[in-house]
Amino acid sequence: MARQSPFDNPGDQWPRLEVRVLPYDPGWAERFHLEADQLRRSLGDAIHAVEHFGSTSVPGLSAKPIVDIVVELTRRLEPFDRDALRDAGYIYERNVDDPDITFLAKGAHEVHLQLLPRAHPSVLTKLAVRDYLRAHPDEARLYADTKEAIAAAASGVAKDYALGKRAFVDALEARALDWVRRGY
Predict the structure, then answer these.
(1) Which burial class, exposed, middle or buried, applies to 173 when counting CB atoms under 10 A from its CB (0-12, 13-18, 19+)?
(2) Which terminal residue of the chain has fewer beta carbons within 10 Å of its beta carbon, N or C?
(3) Is the pTM of this model over 0.85?
């Protein structure tokens, strides 16, 4: 049985977007770098690290055209930090069943931003999966095929897509974390 992710229960705040899985676009990496620079200017010393994760961070992997970014914070965000993020275009906030995670989106969901305290366990998992898929092209292909099939079955509905791939993602995360623990 699939475990529940902190992102699986946003109440009525599921993103209102149609899930489309597209072929890899090198522009996703460029968009990450632009956003990371803007986040560093906006948040300054509040940032420990900015990382690109998710399918758009894996060259060659099909993905929803949403650049996922995780920021590890050195401190709690202040009201002026939130104002700076809003000024940078991050306005949509979604409920997450983890009080340490702040989830924001930019534009029409072109970018999703997760703000977490430094060394939050979710960061290790996100980066382990990214690095594992980069190092294992067969796994990346299997993941792409799985996502495309689930997106088609979900008829583009974000909630159905996310929950439909939960068991596969759980197993992928376990393999990736084991791979990291073994030292690659």
Answers:
(1) middle
(2) N
(3) yes
